[in-house]
Amino acid sequence: MSAVSAPESSVGEGSPAGGPDQLMRLCHDLRQYVAAGLLLSEPRTGQEAQTRMALIHQQFTAIAEMLAAEFDRVDSMGPINLARLVTECADMVRLTHRGQITVMGSKQVLVDGEQALLRRAVGNMLDNACRAAGPSGTVTVKVGVDAHEAKIEVVDDGAGFGGISAGTGHGLQVIAAAVRACRGRLEISSGPGVGTTVRLCVPALRRAVRPA
Question: Helix 46-67 crosses helix 82-94 at what angle (to 10 degrees)?
Fold first, then answer.
């Protein structure tokens, strides 16, 4: 297994809103939510319609959150239940990915960070893993916490490094920015065979938070 360090990026560190690279990264992240919204907006009735409306509300809330963080430049650092955020991101990615996505681990993992940036980071981790695994593959997400660190581990059973076509690189830049904003670290490993593991580690928050 080999570790790969995260690249430097100016996202989330006070870079001017509206720059070309920043806009490209935002568009890259929003496309998944747009695709999910289109699927959810197809007519349905009964309980399925109610479930879809709840997911639509979740998608638009996430989009509004991202846009406010990117262009309003408000200080949005605060306590976040990372486990719930990961579950919401997985719900969104499942709408457009045909493979299996399984979320395991703790139900409440608290960190101090910028929710919009962390949401974008987790979304990109899942999107990259799903592209690598393909429509018949499996992606497993584990969320946990030890004495000092909260961890998100995304594992796919795809072809490993070099086995799929390279992306734009925007997703990894957003992930790296979220890690730095939370004073954490990013580990990426892939052996000579199948599968890649991406692990995002940030300091755990021990104080209780009020339920949303």
Answer: 120
CATH code assigned at 113: 3.30.565.10
Report the alpha-carbon distance of residue 6 to residue 173 in Å, rounded.
8
pLDDT, one tens digit per residue, over 142-196 is: 999 987 899 999 999 987 665 666 666 677 888 888 888 889 999 988 866 678 9
Which candidate, 114, 54, 111, 112, places its Cα nearest to that of 88? 54
Q: Which residues of 157-176 are buried (b: 16+ CB within 10 A; e: fewer)?
A: bbbbbeebeeeeebbbbbbb
The pTM assigned to this predicted structure is 0.69
Q: Domain total for the chain?
A: 1
Sequence-distant (6+) residues with CB within 8 A of 21 are 10
